[in-house]
Amino acid sequence: MSLIPQTVREQVTNQIRNDLLSGRFPAGTMLREIELAARFGVSRGPVRDAFIQLSHEGYLAYQANRGVMVRHPPNPKDREFITSVRLQIETYVIQRGFDTKSKESTADVKQALERLHEACQSGEASQVAIRDIEFHQKILVACGGEDMVPTWRQLCSRMLLTYTRLGDYGQAYKEHVAIFEPFRDGNLKKTLAAVRANIK
């Protein structure tokens, strides 16, 4: 499988996202364009674009007259609510479009599962979190849920700030295999049950 070349903006965005998920920037940290531009050896433009993208995704927040701040993770009650809304979106999209998925889109889900497996084997927390969400997004897209993805990603980013799978990568991978196999085989009931067991 050939790798798709990344633009400078994409590289900077991905690195900052990884830093956020790995805890390099604690909640409440103010991020500075000039400092990150110097670190990455780029102009301030790609960093500014990364800030905009990551703000849309829900990781960062603009503070008036201050700059960009790393968002605080949701408190337990809010996280419980966010999780329930995310689950509603995923189960709704899967139920609505399960019979419309194609061989090609199912293959995309399988590739995402393989990337998750690689991340779990590497033990890199940020990559496991990113590949976890990528897998679920591929399922949404396979079931025709592209229109739901932006809202869904906002919810996921809030959950990722308190990712609960650290050190339990083997189990996380098994749960995603349990989602993929009935998804591939056309068993809607088992797919939904596995999704509900995974999202918590």
From TrEMBL:
SMART domains per the UniProt record, alphabetical: HTH_GNTR (SM00345)
Database matches in SUPFAM superfamilies: GntR ligand-binding domain-like (SSF48008), Winged helix' DNA-binding domain (SSF46785)
Keyword Transcription regulation appears in the UniProt entry: yes
Domain HTH gntR-type, residue spans: 6-73
Keywords: DNA-binding, Transcription, Transcription regulation
Name the record gives this protein: GntR family transcriptional regulator
Species name: Aporhodopirellula aestuarii
Organism lineage: Bacteria, Pseudomonadati, Planctomycetota, Planctomycetia, Pirellulales
